[in-house]
């Protein structure tokens, strides 16, 4: 079980690609980053492991069933300590839900356009680039 450390709030995210190498993004319904595109994810609830939280958040926000793998990277954004996991889709139908107003697969050109337009959550593009996790398509 992973509890928040100090005043930070432990969160998880899923880095997921489709068969074409496109990256899964959601448009956030709530702050932080309301209206912007981001990786699906959210807070680790009390008593949950990171793996359980990734599975729950991915299903709630995207309608997809996933198997979380290794941690791709971690960042701290304000009070949020975010651990992003590589995920493999095992089923479901892509549908925005819960804290997402939209969900889509994004190729490299699309992601670059979202970054240029300021529609990505702060520093997401740079972080994904630094982690070598940009869309492969």
TrEMBL record:
Cofactor section: Mg(2+)
GO molecular function: hydrolase activity
Keyword Transcription regulation: no
Pfam family, one: NUDIX
Organism ancestry: Bacteria, Bacillati, Actinomycetota, Actinomycetes, Pseudonocardiales
Alphabetical list of Gene3D superfamilies matching this protein: Nucleoside Triphosphate Pyrophosphohydrolase
Protein name as annotated: NUDIX domain-containing protein
PROSITE patterns with a match to the protein in the record: NUDIX (PS51462), NUDIX_BOX (PS00893)
Domain Nudix hydrolase: 7-128
Family, as annotated: Belongs to the Nudix hydrolase family.
InterPro entries: Nudix_hydrolase, NUDIX_hydrolase-like_dom_sf, NUDIX_hydrolase_CS, NUDIX_hydrolase_dom
Keywords: Hydrolase
Keyword Ribosomal protein: no
